[in-house]
Design brief:
It contains 5 helices and 35 strands. By secondary structure, the protein is mainly beta. It has one domain: Maltoporin, Chain A (Beta Barrel). The strands form 4 sheets. The chain has a 22-stranded antiparallel barrel. A 5-stranded mixed β-sheet has the order 1-6-7-4-5. A two-stranded antiparallel ribbon has the order 2-3.
Length: 732
């Protein structure tokens, strides 16, 4: 049964439960003025608290503490946000249970245009250490960024094109650091210089790490060893260190911006290069044959005796490393007050040249190339009858190709264009935000597969109702659509990263979602509190289903569609315990929960064909219309105590990841674990805006074996063990 809109009764009940025990008395205190954090991803340039849609921003000390080698790990401490994991070089954000092609990763508001959505072992081409701030838009961000943001967006603001003139002729920052868990050697710098109306920028980063330490065995033991490949002998498995987990990263950029009274113009060029290892056991290769597993399945049009497959066995798996590089050019320009009814017109453009190769034993296996551009023209209107807003046009094109034995997706050109409008108006204590967007997407693959075109319409309404100066309610309703991606439509072969044969469906339709959300924000002298409950219902949700069919002991998985529902809640509270001669003491508490499941009953029959050279193996099987979706992030609760006094700051915290038992068919539960962290830093001001900081950051101090449920590698690669990062930061 389909439900066009989420059920508000369930959301209200969830919110009431989440609010149980809320210290409402805190609202009686005088409200505090929250720091203004501008969200650059919004064309209306509002701050995080003024936007009705859920947005969180990492910057300053919070960003320094959260810095990591991957974007996903950098934002994973925020409520409702976790990360994928495919070794230390790969981590993509998971927003409220959604990831991959549903979460748009942006660099200064423009698409990253890398290949990170194509495969779980592909890294994002964005360096968090060079960010000024990271903006996380939870919930549909399709109005701003198109159908690829149906689950949200993460925008990394790097400042290579300046937004304003710096206060000093020359300013910047630098950092060097090490880490005991992987012998990290890292350094970064940033310089901004002012000459008249010109701002010149340069930044760079170097990072080298060795294989990282783990608490015990790399491979997780199974109760049923039939799940293991032949030769996975736990007695001989890697212990104490995860082999082939070393990485090397080089990144940097140049920028120049002219800022005038009537407009601005900026140009930036950047490069990102990373070589990282894929932990052993992750990749399954086409030659790893164990004989056919067909006998248990109904299929036709093929003969086992005529295939000519060789039974080579696993043998020794060579180290697989990925060598990736992206070169990028960005342009931004704008005119202030171009017409009587417009505040400004902005033009943003980005061009990207991305390539990575998979190296097996030092030899090139498969090469992935993605070249594209993203252009955005938008205008911000002046207030008309109380309404203020923006409208614009976005154009994009990405030419993707994969060449090699393990290229499971054909070369495809994806072209898109979109029109959008946003409006907001205050009605006394109520602020209303409305928006709409139309997108057209065309995918044209090489070969015999048909080209597909899709239309997506997105509508949104959100509101902030200020109950009093310290308390406000927020509401959101969205209807969003997403066009299928190239891998969902055209996959046809062994995907080594997922350890499965993936089969696309060229008949997939647009994915449609309706979301409702309600949240409560409270701010006072003693308390900052946020709680939200949400539900999203998807018609024709696209997911990768395990068919139960195996070829050569490799499972066959099918991209298919069924209705689904995501329900969740998240809360965060910061209690300002004291601010006296002993220092300022703050206690942070947070928790989040999400459940993703198919929203149907019974089962449906699907037919699919597995390609084998010049012929196919054809199958029919039954897929359930209900049950849990795979790799849904587990519930979490966390707490941290922070202390500051003069130049000192310190914190101690822990996050409990609960056991995940809500698993999909043929998916194993994952055990819970607790990660303990601590931070200590001392900063001294040398005057004239110059300051130094020395720091110690400890993570997983309990040296606990942690295997994230969101990771395809959790059976082969646990998170790093006890780690202590140390270094020096400089601001000038």
């Amino acid at each position: 049964m389909r439900h066009p809109l989420p059920r508000p009764g369930r959301l209200a009940a969830a919110l009431a439960l989440a609010c149980t025990g809320l210290p409402l008395a805190a609202a009686a205190h005088e409200p505090t003025e929250l720091p203004t954090v501008q969200v650059t991803a919004s064309p209306l340039a509002g701050d995080a608290e003024s936007l009705a849609r859920p947005v969180e921003v990492l910057q300053g000390e919070a960003l320094d503490r959260a810095k990591s080698a991957t974007l996903g790990e950098a934002v994973a401490g925020l409520p409702g946000v976790q990360t994928t994991y495919f070794g230390p070089g790969v981590g993509r954000p998971v927003l409220r249970g959604l990831d991959g092609p549903r979460v748009q990763v942006l660099s200064s508001g423009m698409g990253s245009m890398d290949a990170s959505t194509v495969s779980a072992d592909h890294a994002t081409s964005i360096e968090p250490f060079l960010a000024d701030q990271i903006e996380v838009l939870k919930g549909p961000a399709t109005l701003l960024f198109g159908s690829g943001a149906i689950g949200g967006a993460v925008n990394v603001v790097d400042g290579r094109i300046a937004r304003e003139l710096p206060a000093r002729p020359l300013s910047g920052r630098a950092e060097i650091r090490g880490n005991t868990v992987n012998d990290e050697r890292s350094g970064m710098f940033r310089l901004d210089g002012v000459n008249g109306n010109w701002v010149l920028h340069v930044d760079g980063l170097l990072r080298d790490t060795d294989d990282y330490d783990i608490p015990g065995l790399a491979a997780a033991p199974h109760d049923d060893h039939d799940h293991e490949h032949e030769g996975d002998d736990h007695t001989d498995a890697a212990r104490g260190t995860l082999p082939n987990s070393a990485m090397q990263t080089r990144a940097g950029g140049l920028g120049a911006t002219w800022l005038g009274e009537r407009g601005y113009f900026g140009l930036a060029a950047s490069t990102y290069r990373s070589e990282y290892g894929i932990p052993a056991g992750a990749h399954v290769h086409a030659g790893d044959d164990h004989g056919h597993g067909h006998d248990e399945h109904d299929h036709d049009e093929h003969d086992h005796d005529e295939h000519g497959h060789e039974d080579e066995g696993h043998g020794h798996e060579e180290d697989v490393r990925i060598d990736m590089v992206q070169n990028r050019l960005e342009l931004k320009g704008g005119i202030y007050d171009p017409l009587s009814f417009l505040e400004r017109i902005d033009l943003h453009g980005a061009w990207s040249d991305y390539e990575h190769v998979e190296l097996e034993g030092g030899q090139v296996g498969t090469r992935f190339v993605s070249r594209g551009h993203d252009t955005r023209l938008q205008a911000v209107q002046k207030e008309v009858a109380g309404w203020r807003g923006a409208f614009g046009l976005q154009l994009g094109s990405v030419d993707f190709s994969a060449v090699g034995e393990e290229a499971f997706v054909p070369s495809t050109v994806t072209d898109s264009w979109g029109l959008f409008v946003l409006q907001e108006k205050a009605f006394g204590p109520l602020k209303l935000e409305l928006g709409g967007r139309y997108d057209h997407v065309r995918l044209a693959p090489d070969g015999s597969a048909p080209a597909r075109e899709f239309d997506a319409t997105n509508l949104s309404a959100a509101a902030i109702w200020r109950l009093n100066p310290a308390l406000e309610l927020r509401f959101g309703l969205d209807r969003s659509e997403r066009a299928p991606t190239q891998e969902e439509l055209y996959a046809g072969g062994l995907h080594v990263a997922t350890g499965s044969i993936e089969i696309g469906d060229t008949g997939l339709q647009t994915e449609r979602a309706a979301r409702a959300e309600v949240s409560l924000h409270a701010h006072s002298e003693r308390l900052d509190f946020k709680v939200a409950a949400y539900q999203g219902r998807f018609d024709d949700f696209i997911y990768l289903a395990d068919t139960g069919v195996a070829e050569h002991d490799v499972p066959v998985r099918l991209w298919t569609q069924a209705d689904a529902v995501f329900t969740g809640a998240e809360a965060e509270a910061v209690l300002h315990l004291a601010d006296n001669a002993t220092g300022a003491w703050d206690l942070r508490l947070f928790g989040d929960y999400v459940r993703g499941e198919l929203d149907g009953s019974g089962s449906r029959e699907v037919a699919f064909a597995v390609p084998h050279g010049d012929h196919f193996h054809r199958y029919r099987t039954e897929l359930a219309n209900d049950g849990n979706l795979p790799r849904i992030a587990p519930p979490r609760v966390g707490a941290s105590l922070t202390w500051t006094l003069d130049g000192w700051r310190a914190s101690l915290g822990a996050v409990r990841y609960q056991r995940q038992d809500d698993v999909a068919a043929n998916e194993e539960p994952s055990p819970g674990y607790t990660l303990v962290d601590a931070h200590l830093a001392y900063r001294w001001d040398r005057g004239d805006g110059n300051s130094w900081e020395v720091f110690l950051d400890g993570t997983n101090l309990g040296d606990e074996e942690a295997r994230p449920h969101t990771s395809l590698l959790r059976q082969y690669a646990p998170l790093p063990g006890r780690a202590v990062a140390f270094g020096v930061r400089l601001w000038f």
